[in-house]
């Protein structure tokens, strides 16, 4: 049993751990997992405030997770609830106070809300104890809600959440709220950069870049788990990869409208100009100040390379846009990078981008049938795509489908 001083130290350490991450999705996932570890609970969820609604963002449930195959995650879900007294989370957001419930099925008439049993009825799970905490920023505004479910004793029996932990977890929630606001600001900056690209090229929508980023993270995490990479390494790479993948096509802002918005096929000369969006995007991050700058440059430059070496822009000098010595192929066109010479993040985003381009409707084409998209990627193993990533993709198709439905155009 930890002393109060030890618990406070744990909470401070958790706050410091959160400060390492910049991507909002990973921050929210980490807040939930760290709070669950601290309170030793079986499950939980986290919401972010959007106007007068709470947007459901993440759920974790150890009992349900153990029923899934290794490496699989609980299904993605997306819904909102109003901030009012009709739900437990909505009420906590409305009043800004922690709510500790010993058994959600035995709420007394003093509470204005009732517990929604639909998830339990669908899954066979039994929700009992609940600790619901508002996430408040330094202005004391509630920006989200953290909900912890089924505290466990040493034998994994369900017990009520300890009242003496409420104040400490409340302190953690305040620290978490600061991390959420900082990460939301980072995401907003990235989305504004993408909006500039969208103004030039309507195909580059916010939904598209969110999907490509989410697919990329799924591919990387599944690959890393197969390779038994350390969790700290996985978390760090997920953080920078997601943000970098969202900016894979930002270099298109530098392509002339007569080419970028051309409805028909490019001439050979126009296509050579279009290829330069990879170089332009990489040059935006040529001054390396962080892992994110380095990763964003790598992704922008390499997401059109092919495993067989027939992609672009190949081995090119970013400052002059000329082929590097020794890599001339013909008429000034460079050899594409080949195989593992293509940086790993570039290989990941290449596959994710193609999946999204084929799966979604565009002004110039209809969406492909999913089975045709899967076959095309499968057939591209070892030619267009990294064979190991294709294997990982085929094992993750269900998750890709959930992400596609989550971020609709």
Give an account of the 3D structure.
The protein is of the alpha+beta class. The protein folds into 2 domains: 180 residues, GAF domain (Beta-Lactamase, 2-Layer Sandwich), CATH 3.30.450.40; 206 residues, Orthogonal Bundle (Hypothetical protein af1432), CATH 1.10.3210.10. Helices cover 48% and strands 12% of the residues. Strands 1, 2, 3, 4, 5, 6 and 7 form a 7-stranded antiparallel beta sheet that branches. Strand 5 and strand 6 form a beta hairpin. The longest helix is centred in the middle third of the chain and has 35 residues. About 2% of the residues have low confidence.
Structural class: alpha+beta
Radius of gyration over C-alpha positions, nearest whole angstrom: 24 Å
Look at the structure and name the CATH superfamily of the largest domain. Answer: Hypothetical protein af1432
Task: Give the mean pLDDT.
Answer: 89
Give the helix tally: 16
CATH structural class of the largest domain: Mainly Alpha
Give the overall shape: elongated
Provide a quick synopsis of the model.
By secondary structure, the chain is α+β, with helices and mostly antiparallel strands.
Jot down its keywords:
single chain, 409 residues, alpha+beta, Beta-Lactamase, two-stranded antiparallel sheet, 9 strands
